[in-house]
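hey so i finally got around to running the thing on that chain from the lab meeting. sorry it took forever, my laptop kept dying and i had to restart like 3 times. anyway pasting the input first so we r on the same page abt which one it is
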Amino acid sequence: MPNKKVKDDITPDIDRIVGKLQKELPKKAHKYFKEITPIKTGNARRKTKRRGHVIVANYKYATQLDEGRSKQARHGMSGPTTKYLNKLVKKVVEGV
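ok and heres what got predicted. didnt touch it at all, straight out
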């Protein structure tokens, strides 16, 4: 019995999803993280940077803020940012 060739319709969709996620998620994560970072003097937001795919909160009290020790961000920033990204990923995947 001869082998049948199967058309690969999945790989282009996967490539599109991966490409979109790699391009958009780091930027959107950084933007969202900064938006929900508590602001008193602006120092925390100013010193929150993105290096590649990593968000760097370069100030002494970053851990305290992320642990929710601020009335302005009772849930910190990392957890809510992760939830936000999960929603974005779901949208991208469902949109293909």
